[in-house]
Hints:
The structure is a single chain. The chain is an all-alpha fold. Helices cover 83% and strands 0% of the residues.
Amino acid sequence: SLVALYFNAFHPLLQTGLALTAVLGLLLFGQRCRAKNEAAGLAYIGLGMFFLLGIGLYMLRLHGVDGWGASSAFLTLCGLFWIVFGIGARIPVLHFCGWAALILVYAVLLAKSAPGTEWYQVQLYWVPGAFVFGWLSWFVRRWSKPASAVLFVTGALLWFMPEVHTAFLLDEQGWIQLQLIVKMALGGAILFAIRKQVIAWVA
């Protein structure tokens, strides 16, 4: 169409308005479709979210503001929007993608600000967040079990993020296997210790 053909020539405000209109249209259409066909509705919503991410990054590059700071800020906004929309529309996968986006931004921030971190410092950067999300998961279970499950999975991801951080960003990787074994053992021990609460939680 002419809009796509001349998109780069438009004013940035007009580009933003057109992009947001397209995203909003896909999300609204997807929500309407969910009443008749859940899979089709989710596909349109997913397309809208991918379009939001893609067009946003494209516009940042188009206007010369595609540094890691601007890209991270945009990804943070996308993550927050995915979390809010995922909770409101009851789409757990989208809710989790929002937290995953924020975790990615945090990982990039750590890589930029603390490149030569020791292994125990890496644990301190990530593990407390796992306990926070575990508590949040338990706290919100009475209102929304899907949201509670997403928070629990996010906490589990944070629990093992130090090893991912070490594998990709640190030179000393000889202890990763041992750390993973210890982490799995500790995680299993914690779940066993609170098994009664967990059974009541998932029931």
